[in-house]
Amino acid sequence: MREFEADVVVVGGGAAGLAAAITAAEKGAQVMVLEKANTTGGCANMAMGLLGVETKLQKERLIDITRERAFEKFMDYTHWRSDAKLVKKYIDQSAETIEWLQAMGVDFALPSKYFPGSEATWHIIMPKTGNPGLRAAATMIKAMTERAEELGVKILLETPVKSLIKDQGEIIGVQASDKDGELEVYAGAVVVSTGGFGDSPEFIKKYTPYEWGKDLYSYRIPGLTGDGIQMAWDAGAGRDYMDMELVFFAPNTGGYAPIELPFRQPNLFVNLDGKRFYNEQVVENPVFSVNAITRQKNRVAFSIIDDKTMKKYEENGLDLINVVTSSMDMSYFNQEMEEAIKNGSDVFFMAETIEELAEKTGIDQEGLAETLKNYNEACKAGGDKEFNKNPRYMVPLDGSKYYALKFAPSAYGSLGGIRINDKTQVITDQFAVIPGLFAAGTDANSVCNPDYVFVLPGNTLGFAVNSGRMAGRNAVAYIKSLS
Fold first, then answer.
1. Taking all residues of the chain, what is their mean pLDDT, rounded to a whole number?
2. 49: burial class by Cβ within 10 Å (0-12, 13-18, 19+)?
3. Is the pLDDT of residue 453 over 80?
4. What value does the mean pLDDT take over residues 275-304?
5. Same CATH topology for 2-242+416-482 and 247-410?
6. Which of 59, 93, 183, 472 stands 20 to 30 A from 34 (CA)?
7. How far is CA 440 from each of CA 87, 235, 419, 479, rounded to the nearest angstrom?
8. Which residues, in sequence order, are CB contacts of 238 under 8 Å at separation 6+?
9. Global pTM?
10. Does residue 141 contact residue 15 with C-beta atoms inside 8 Å?
């Protein structure tokens, strides 16, 4: 058995782990990061940007969101189910964190909203080459990894941690393995930041209301199997709120695929009974929409348009766009539609009549026909008495061809699991601190409770980096208190 020593050992080399490692190293600690993948970053490599409030970038663009208003919005959105002290510290630190990253060479494209009703808190990362988009945060991970190494942080890749070492109630290190066998790292403090359980169908089925591949079609970043959460629980950690970071996509398309473009709009949405179930203009908020879809039969819904609507979108552009889809137009859709028609699809449907569309999709034919009749009458009357949908989006479906796309719950990853306090110390179910143990990032992200706070976009990566910095700082303070 090989043995190593460090002041702080970090389990997981994603955004939270790197933030913790850099912060601790900046304060003079000797730090080791153990990462089971062959590269750093984890799920952060898929991200686009992080939350910042009262940043210089916002002030330069006259974006007047304040820390006080952001805190109020966050807590109102979560109905005060979140740890208010932790949320306050996270938001108050967020502007300084953006500057901290800029000092490492991370460039930001702009502070952005996710959808019109949200705040411009999402600080989109500018890649060294190309335009901002999915996976842009990989540039940030590269800069953070280089900064950690510059500070002397020892990063061990392909070194999965198996368990925490506990002695008389204190966490004093970890047991791990690599290609050369077993090893132990003894440390004054341990930070767990392994990225959650998004790649574990077993975890998802056991600890959330969903079953992956049946009523959930989420991203699965390899290696995020909940092992950090489990080892913390095994060491006595309390279990906090757990769920998925829910959004909605067409199943098995990879999320925000071009095939979704004309359907992720305030069109007619129906369930398998052919009935409307919400105000479709809410489609711009992925969380509100997936909450509504989750309540439907088999947790699926269909967005329906006709050839007239399709032509309108091609000629005039889409009604709603967001930062993720703003770089795509209908030509992207047309290419995927041709492939779907050629190869067949279980999510995209095209028909000459409503009856044929109902047969292809499995939607109840009588229910769909009745809904379409009532909907078209409401469109012509200029008002929606069922859900008060904005009249500008009430467009009758009376063309010569119909299209539908199937939507279902999806998720960017998981949320929560390890109970922490506002100092990122891991605590038991009885709120007793476990000495020497800290947690950050997705493993401990129970502040987005019960939903991801989309009105302040950038929260997952924002919480990861900021809670990682808190954990690194607090771990060093804990070690100093011992001496």
1. 95
2. buried
3. yes
4. 96
5. no
6. 93
7. 13, 16, 10, 18
8. 418, 419, 426, 427, 428, 429, 430, 431
9. 0.94
10. yes
* Interval 411-437 mean pLDDT: 97
Residue for token pair 């929606």: 384
Domain ranges within the chain, ordered by starting residue: 2-242+416-482, 247-410
Q: Are 69 and 10 within 8 A, CB to CB?
A: no
Residue 323 has pLDDT above 80, yes or no: no
Ramachandran class of 185: left when φ > 0, alpha when ψ lies in -120 to 50, beta otherwise:
beta
- CB within 8 A of 32, min separation 6: which ones? 4, 6, 8, 9, 10, 153, 154, 155, 156, 185, 187
Q: Does 247-410 carry CATH code 3.40.50.300?
A: no
Q: Given 3.50.50.60, 3.90.850.10, 3.60.21.10, 3.30.420.130, which CATH number is that of 2-242+416-482?
A: 3.50.50.60
333-338 average pLDDT score: 92
Beta-ladder partners of 247: 410
Q: What is the pLDDT of residues 259-288, one digit of tens each?
A: 999 999 999 999 999 999 999 999 999 999
Identify the band that residue 129 occupies on the pLDDT scale cut at 50, 70 and 90.
Answer: low
- The predicted-structure confidence for 198-224, as pLDDT tens digits, reads as follows 999 999 999 999 999 999 999 898 999
Distance CA 156, CA 297 (A): 47
Query: Is the peptide bond prior to 450 cis by the omega test (within 30 degrees of 0)?
Result: yes
* Distance, CA of 117 to CA of 252 (rounded, Å): 28
The Cα–Cα gap between 46 and 133 comes to 9
337 is written with which tokens?
């539609």
Place of tokens 């979108």: 313
Contact 124, 322 (CB under 8 A): no
Judge whether 91 and 70 are in contact, CB under 8 Å.
Answer: yes
